[in-house]
Amino acid sequence: MKKEYLILATLILLLGAYLLFHKENQNKYVLPKIEKIDTSKITGLIIGKKQSPIEFTKKEEYWTVTDKEFPADSPSIEKMLDTLKILKLSVLVSEKENLKRYELDDENYIQVKATNGQKIIFQFTMGKTAPSFNHTFVRLPDNKNIYHANGNFRSHFDKTIEDFRDKKVLEFKEDSIQQITIEKDGISKTLISKQRKTDKEAVLVTWTSDDGISADKKIVSSLLSLVSFLKSEKYLSDETKNKLVNEKPFCKLRFKNEKNMDLTLFKMDTEENLIGISSMNKYAFALSQFNSEEIVSNIETLLGITKEEKTNN
Questions:
Q1: What is the pLDDT of residues 72-88, one digit of tens each?
Q2: What are 31's strand-pairing partners?
Q3: DSSP state of 199
Q4: What pLDDT does 9 receive?
Q5: Which helix (H) or strand (E) holds 70?
Q6: SS3 of 301, please?
Q7: Residue 54 contacts residue 66 (beta carbons within 8 Å)
Q8: What pLDDT digit, counting tens, does each position of 43-70 carry?
Q9: Which of 144, 158, 76 lies closest to 109 in space, CA to CA?
Q10: In percent, how much of the chain has pLDDT > 90?
Q11: What is the pLDDT of residues 274-303, one digit of tens each?
């Protein structure tokens, strides 16, 4: 029995010594401290990959992407700036330069540079998301070590130029619209909004066409809901826009409040999606199939175009 106690005591001592040594060994390194970044002073971002880097520039209160100065998607910019604002290292992962394992190699890395004018404020390189899905593998300049950074943020930076562009092509408040003009298949109709208060002081909105016939309020509301914050699926080339100017539109819409806003849509023989131009955006674009179908369906209902008429056209 005494021998068993002696063996147990020896094992406990060995285990304690191992844990103590392991803890001391863990504490031998000090994590680099990342100074808090004032993102309000950032005027430029450069996202570098194996392909050509993507550059963003702050113009007064809005951001542009590439030297063509495409308007950038504000939520995408905010996600990247928020990442920089709270970036913090949590643990040393490796002192070996096994970059491919962490996707920090030349094929997979993403390098981020934040600038103020020509001066680089901060930069780092990121690899893949860690297995925990709560961390990302990163490296700092002039430091061969690989660290965990808090957060799963690679997807905020791992995008194409098209992904980073602001896809909004039309925007207005639905209740501000006083008049809608729609055209398709040689038929045109103007709808006028009229408001009156009920006995309970509620505002009742009705829509009447220029020939005095009431329009279906639900369909008008559906159309306005679709286009009041309309986003494109993708942008098209300048050459395509130049061609559209001379093409016959598939349908046209004009929305009027204190100003006129035009949406002109075209149908390509090889595509289900409609393409178009908007008075609120200088680029030609393609709509999603869902938006294309819903907009056309509402227009045809309001114009009274039947299935038979569509087939004949």
A1: 999 999 999 999 999 99
A2: none
A3: T
A4: 59
A5: strand 70-71
A6: helix
A7: yes
A8: 999 999 988 899 999 998 899 999 999 9
A9: 158
A10: 76
A11: 999 999 999 999 999 999 999 999 999 999
Residues in the chain: 313
**Cβ(193)–Cβ(177) below 8 Å:** yes
CB neighbour class for 235 (10 Å; exposed up to 12, middle 13-18, buried from 19)? buried
Type of residue numbered 72:
A
d(CA 300, CA 281): 25
Phi, psi of 99 (to 5 degrees): -70, -35
Which residues, other chains included, contact 204 with Cβ-Cβ below 8 Å and sequence gap of 6+? 195, 196, 197, 198
Q: Measuring CA to CA, how many Å separate 307 from each of 58, 152, 313?
A: 50, 50, 10
Q: DSSP state, 214?
A: B
Average pLDDT, the chain: 89
Q: What is the C-alpha separation between 269 and 266, in angstroms, rounded?
A: 10
Tokens of 305: 């175009």
Distances (CA, A) of 35 to 39, 85, 131, 153, 273: 12, 10, 27, 19, 48
